[in-house]
Amino acid sequence: MIVYCVEVKVISGKEGVFEQACLENRKGTRKEEGNHRFDVLQQSDNPGSFFLYEAYSSPEAVKAHKETPHYLKWRDLVAPWMAEPRKGTSHRVCAPLEVSGW
Amino acid sequence: MIVYCVEVKVISGKEGVFEQACLENRKGTRKEEGNHRFDVLQQSDNPGSFFLYEAYSSPEAVKAHKETPHYLKWRDLVAPWMAEPRKGTSHRVCAPLEVSGW
Predict the structure, then answer these.
(1) E-strand stretches of A1-102
(2) Are A52 and A87 in contact, with CB atoms under 8 Å apart?
(3) Which candidate in A39, A45, A49 is best for mutational testing of the B interface (most B CBs within 10 A)?
């Protein structure tokens, strides 16, 4: 399992449309065979700061995700709403190790 | 649901013991009534950078967690292994909204 985290800072006034775009992307992503989780979060003390928490079964699954229509649509749609370039980081999972934990 | 994220930078050589301490803390935390998730991650391209992803049912559950013996033990044990102060951020959940998604 690989967890890919994405931090996004959104310009003021675009929080609502950004959230909706992420929920659409999530809907498609959760149907991908290699995706196990896609959480959309908004920082409590900073509504312009969003966090996507995505779990995939392999590096190939991450790559496949980035070629899907829902991801590409999201990427292009949200681009003008970003206050700064988004920051993605890839993680090894220490726990939970069982697939049922995802 | 509230998601509490913690970023920890660990000094070189302490990655293994830090991971073990987090797994112990996780074991106790997952038994708390208000805890729904506790993922322990290590950044793929930076083994000294860890990420804890904790989901709680309420602010009270977060507070209760910080008073548990397993949390206090973890906090004191890992303190000398940190390369810089750890950074915690609290999040509102946009998705998944159903409790079964956690």
Answers:
(1) 2-9, 35-43, 49-56, 87-95
(2) no
(3) A39
**Separation CA A94–CA A99 (nearest Å):** 12
Contact B42 A95 (CB under 8 A): no
pLDDT in tens, A36-73: 999 999 999 999 999 999 999 999 999 999 999 999 99
pLDDT tens column, B2-16: 999 999 999 999 999
The pLDDT tens digits for B23-82 are 999 999 999 999 999 999 999 999 999 999 999 999 999 999 999 999 999 999 999 999
Give yes or no for a cis peptide into B85 (omega within 30° of 0): no
Contact A41 B90 (CB under 8 A): no
Q: Quickly count helices (H) and strands (E) in chain A.
A: 3, 4
Structural domains of chain A, with CATH = 2-97 (3.30.70.100)
pTM of the model: 0.97
Residue in B26, B41, B89 nearest the CB of A92: B41
Query: ipTM beyond 0.85?
Result: yes
Strands B35-43 and B49-56: antiparallel
